[in-house]
Amino acid sequence: MQIGGVPYRTIWPAADGSAILVIDQTKLPFAFETCRLTTLDEAAHAIRSMIVRGAPLIGATAAWGVALAMRVDASDAALAHAITELGATRPTAVNLHWALERVETLLRPLAAPQRSQAAWNAAIAICDEDAATCRAIGEHGLPLLREAFKRKNGGPLNILTHCNAGWLACVDYGTALAPIYLAHDAGIDVHVFVDETRPRNQGASLTAYELGAHGVPHTIIADNAGGHLMQHGQVDLCIVGSDRTTARGDVANKIGTYLKALAAFDNKVPFYVALPFSTIDWSLGDGVAGIPIEERSAREVTHMSGLSDNGDMTTVRIAAPGSTAANPGFDVTPARLVTALITERGVTPATQAGLAALYPQRTRQSA
Ligand SMILES: CSC[C@H]1O[C@H](OP(=O)(O)O)[C@H](O)[C@@H]1O
Asked: Most buried residue, 163, 166, 224, 229, by CB count within 10 Å?
């Protein structure tokens, strides 16, 4: 995507190969800064600290982390260490494990001297594939928006989204936002209600930043406003991303997604989930029981960071002194609440049969 007319991906190798560059998403929307990753530990830190975030981008960063590790030491022990370190960074997004499994499967049979270049090439391939995959998600989602717009007999088509599943969560294009970008560029009058997405506010800070940069009309709302808007007919459809979707269509996504899906179901608002094949966990059926949910720090709930009136970034406590907080980072929306899944291979019901029809191999590495 473009920022100020300049094309960007979220992660790329420095021209001289000396580092991997990423956009520091903890600085957005008030500052656009890049980070140089030169070691395995720096790549792992970037994932854990959410300098990079979003399921596909977490996977891509992990692949680059292995490549950086192999440049220093390509032994079996070093490869195992890199996979373990990166695999332990964040538990919910299955793309992390998909990428690590793909790279480990590629590297393990190679002689050590061949591993560094092979890992580098694999990371490049994963990034190029993710960009193409997300573009295809947009193309498959576009007809849904076009048809919904036609049914409205006049715009705008009001879409609600949760958290950030745009190009900042991927290598490029995004998942949930990809159909929205293509619809906007096709001249369809779309408007997006952007859930702020407490507690880290990826919606208010990242999705609003993305949509604003692309000129897509949007309105930030409090997370708790979505149900009211749906109840009053102000939302035509919802599109969200996913961090892990099971073989039968249960969807793990940012905390609060399940509540939006319940409100959509109750108000007969179509609820779509956009995801690439690398987000599907074929080993799981029941997502509520089986998907690991990241528990993040209480401080993310009790404090909030932002730009002060004098232009400095500041963090303030917003909760009663002495009170603590629980902070589950994700929840699981049962497949029965999902209208359809938008993938790079097409749109399918959120069912085992639907996913099997799109991905006959139904294995993590060979869709
Ligand atoms: C296209 S994956 C986007 C997905 O990832 C976000 O989580 P986080 O910001 O914690 O990495 C959120 O669940 C988005 O829907």
From this structure: 166
